[in-house]
Amino acid sequence: ASTSDEHDVVVIGGGPGGYVAAIKAAQLGLKTACVEMRGSLGGTCLNVGCIPSKAMLNNSHLFHMAQHEFKDRGIDVGDVKLNLDAMLAKKDSAVKSLTSGIEFLFKKNKVDYVKGKASFTSANELSIAPIDGGSSYPLRAKNFIIATGSEPSPFKGVEVDEKQIVTSTGALALQKVPEKMIVIGGGIIGLEMGSVWSRLGAEVTVVEYLGAVGAGMDGTTAKTFGRILQKQGLKMKLNTKVINATQEGGKVQVNVESAKGGKPETLEADVVLLSIGRRPYTEGLNLEAAGVEMNERGQVKIQSDFKTSVPHIRCIGDVTYGAMLAHKAEEEGIAAVEYIKEGHGHVNYDNIPSVIYTHPEVAWTGKTEEEVKKAGIKYNIGTFPFVANSRAKTNGDFEGSVKIISDAETDRMLGVHIIGPNAGEMIAEAVLALEYGASSEDVARTCHAHPTLSEAFKEACMATHDKAIHA
Ligand code: FAD
Ligand code: NAI
Question: Which family would the database say this protein is a member of (predicted)?
Answer without folding.
Answer: Belongs to the class-I pyridine nucleotide-disulfide oxidoreductase family.
